[in-house]
Amino acid sequence: MEEVTLSTINWLAGLGATVVAFLIGGIWYGPIFGKAWMKAGDFTEEYLKNRNMGMVFGLSFLLTLVAAINLEMFIGPKGNINFGMFAGFMTGLGFVAMFLGILYLFEKRSLKLFLINAGYCIVTLTVMGAILGNW
Length: 135
What we know:
Elements: H1 11-32, H2 34-40, H3 45-49, H4 53-75, H5 81-107, H6 111-134
Helix pairs in contact: 1-4, 1-6, 4-5, 4-6, 5-6
């Protein structure tokens, strides 16, 4: 296994994966599951509009970039698209979705909200892994 360092990170791939994650999120929480997500999370239009969107999107972008670089470090410099997709899928399903499930159980959140949010994480990390493994 080749050592992963900051010099082996493809920052352009990480940035590309971050942008694609944002596009997926816009579609996922917009036309595909937007209304179902709002209902399952008890969000109102007014509640969602009363946020500092610059801060929400700016910090979300930064957090997604950190996740992309972390996933890229896991895939490694010799990764390929197949391993990248597998690593992304297993990260989404095996880590993120499982911990969301634990949190949702304790917070008494709905199964529907869990499926929407966990589904987004699984799909997005799989696509990010494909991008990172292919570059």
